[in-house]
Structures are given as C-alpha cells and as structure tokens.
Automatic annotation (TrEMBL):
Keyword flag Protease: no
Signal peptide residues on this chain, from the entry's feature table: none
Needed cofactors: pyridoxal 5'-phosphate
Database matches in InterPro entries: Aromatic_deC, PyrdxlP-dep_de-COase, PyrdxlP-dep_Trfase, PyrdxlP-dep_Trfase_major, Pyridoxal-P_BS
Recorded superkingdom: Eukaryota
Keywords: Decarboxylase, Lyase, Pyridoxal phosphate
Family: Belongs to the group II decarboxylase family.
Pfam families, alphabetized: Pyridoxal_deC
One annotated GO molecular function: pyridoxal phosphate binding
One BP annotation, GO: amino acid metabolic process
Any Gene Ontology CC annotation: cytoplasm
Residues recorded as bearing N6-(pyridoxal phosphate)lysine in the entry: 305
Protein name: Tyrosine decarboxylase
Length: 368
C-alpha cells in the first residue's frame, strides 16, 4: 500500500509549480543559445524513450531532466528572437500566467450557467479588442453582433462559411447547394478550400482568382465583378467572398471597400480574414489597411501572432450572430437551464459552441 499512487497535494503543487516556473524562466533566459531549427533526425525520440508507459511514477526532477535532455533538442524554438519563419507566434509572461490560471480553474463553459464568468469575460474582452481595432459598432455585443474566440482562423472561416451557406439555402432552397460559389484571391490561405470541402461546396465552385504584381497581389475588384457576372449568367449563386488583410504568401492587402460593395450588391456574405496583419491595425498608422471593414459581415484576426498571447487564440466578430445561431446551435436537454432561457441572447451561448476559452480572454486582457 505504501507504493500506491496518490494525488499531488497542495504543498506538492506549490513546490513543483515553483520548480516548473523556474524551469520555464531559465528556458527563456537562455533561449538565444539554442539553434532556432531543431537539429534532430526523424524518429530520434523513439530511441530515447521506453516502448511502453512506466508502471511507477518518476520523480519530478527526473521529468524535468528528461525534458532538458530529450525534448528540447527536438523543439524548434518559435519564441526565439532569432525565429523568422512562417509568422510571428510570440507568447509572453502574461500569457503564460494566464495559461496557469486557466489550467488550475479548468473551467468547462458549455453554457452560461456552467461558469458565468467564462461567457461574460469573453464577451467583454472581445468588445475591448473590437474597440481597439476601431471595428464598426455593429460588431459589438451590445447590438446584434459580437465576438467569440476560435482556436484558429481556419476555424473562423469555416464557422462563417457554414452560417453564410445556411442563410442562402434558407432563401433559395436546400437543393441549390451545388450552385453555391465562393470567391477569394489565389493568395488566400488554404483554409478556405478546406472549409469549402467540409461545407459541401463543390471544389470547382471555389473560385480562387489570380492576383498579380499589377495589384500588389491583391484581389482585383474588376476581375471579381467579371467572374461573378459570368457565374450568374450560367445560373450559379455567388454567396461568399473572403478578403485578406495580410496574405500568407505575400502579405497582400485586398481592397476591402471596393470588394465589400461588390459583395453587398450581389447579396453575398463578406468575410475579412486579417489573421496575419489585423493585429497591427491597433496602431493608428496601420489602421487604414482595414478601411472598408464596415462593409464586412464578419472579421477575424489572430491574437496569438502579434499580441503576445499563447497559441491558440483567434478572435472572430460577426454583425449578425443570429446567422451563426441558426446554422450551428443545438438545444439538447442537458444544455437547457432556466437562467439561460430567460436571459438576453447576448449573454447565452450564441455560437452553438460555448464561450469556453476563459483562459484566452484572460490572456488577451492581461497582454494589454
């Protein structure tokens, strides 16, 4: 019985927690000494670890020693000041502390009543962030819109694409799915194509229009209008346009105002993917890159890129949250409760996916 596994008590948590903080602090203190790109060969770790899980617990210090000797050599150090690949993904001490608090509280916020602070804090912080970005008031939770935290921009574009799809199908009939057409620049992130596949949009109806150096690799409004006209002529239904503020391949910025007007005149949902560069627009000198966002139905940016917030934290705003509710919500018995049913829809779960990422709201708030 003496070797029986026992849960860690409060004092052990205090001791080991301090050791883990020291370990991470030392890592950041010496991070510039590591090669940015891991130097290991594929399969290196299998030769260093046992074939099966141990039957007995190991000492905490030995675990830390293993991490130092076996894990860190296989890490590509995204937080290194010498890291310039892909996109910025810089965390911070505030983000790390927020993760600790989140892990300790371990909230499961699948409805307002399961943890009211989770839903309400997320709404408040997303409103703060919207105001920092000078988003139109339609995107604030006091009206018909609001913000919600997604994991990634890929999730965000899928969510709004599904909302847009269901909205148009309610109007034209569900049998028209094969006629729906999506438009974006060929510089758009590949997540749009994946979202189309998941949403049942025919691959040939995902129009990724060629962008050239003549427009600084931004989507041409004239080319878009021409393509939409051609599609209408053959009986297709344009329903979704995605513009980008900071494309992955060239950091191009699409002309939001012109594109938004084209979308509106054709009754299309207009989504702005500012995953890469949207965070820079909190700076007044860069805000003009978002001019025209007032025409958008939805807007997304990644706080986990330039906002020193731990991955993953992608902020999505919509002008009309009812479109998301109708497309994505379910109402099983275990989610029903009197408080949620009697409260204003603003403070209930309006995405079908709960306002559950309390930790990310905490981090965003702390980062600022």
């Amino acid at each position: 019985m003496e070797n029986r596994l026992k849960p860690m008590d409060a004092e052990q948590l205090r001791e080991y927690g301090h050791k883990m903080v020291d370990f991470i602090a030392d890592y950041y203190k010496t991070i510039e000494n590591f090669p940015v790109l891991s130097q290991v060969e594929p399969g290196y770790l299998r030769n260093l670890l046992p074939d099966s899980a141990p039957n007995q617990p190991d000492s905490f210090q030995h675990v830390l020693d293993d991490i130092q000797a076996k894990i860190l050599p296989g890490v590509t150090h995204w937080q290194s000041p010498n890291y310039f690949a892909y996109y910025p993904s810089n965390s911070s001490v505030a983000g790390f502390v927020g993760e600790m608090l989140s892990a300790g509280l371990n909230i499961v916020g699948f409805s307002w009543i399961t943890s009211p602070a989770a839903t309400e804090l997320e709404m408040i912080v997303l409103d703060w962030l919207a105001k920092m970005l000078k988003l139109p008031e339609d995107f604030l939770s006091a009206g018909q819109g609001g913000g919600v935290i997604q994991g990634t921009a890929s999730e965000a574009v899928l969510v709004v694409l599904l909302a847009a799809r269901d909205k148009v199908l309610r109007r034209v009939g569900k049998d028209a799915l094969e006629k729906l057409v999506v438009y974006a620049s060929d510089q758009m992130h590949s997540s749009l194509q994946k979202a189309c596949q998941i949403a049942g949009i025919h691959p040939e109806n995902c129009r990724l229009l060629k962008a050239t150096s003549s427009t600084n690799y931004a989507l041409s409004p004239e080319f878009l209008s021409e393509t939409i006209s051609q599609d209408l002529t053959i009986g297709l239904i344009p329903f979704f346009l995605c513009a980008t503020v900071g494309t992955t391949s060239s950091t191009a910025v699409d002309p939001l105002l012109s594109l938004g007007k084209i979308a509106k005149s054709n009754g299309m949902w207009f989504h702005v993917d500012a995953a890469y560069a949207g965070s820079a627009c909190v700076c007044p000198e860069f805000r003009h890159y978002m001019d025209g966002v007032e025409e958008a139905d939805s807007f997304n940016m990644n706080a986990h890129k330039w906002f020193l917030t731990n991955f993953d934290c992608s902020a999505l705003w919509v002008k009309d949250r009812s479109a998301l509710v109708q497309a994505l919500s379910t109402n099983p018995e275990y989610l029903k409760n009197k408080i949620t049913e009697t409260m204003d829809g603003i403070t209930t779960v309006w995405l079908g996916k709960p306002a559950m990422l309390y930790k990310k709201s905490y981090q965003v708030g702390q980062t600022f």
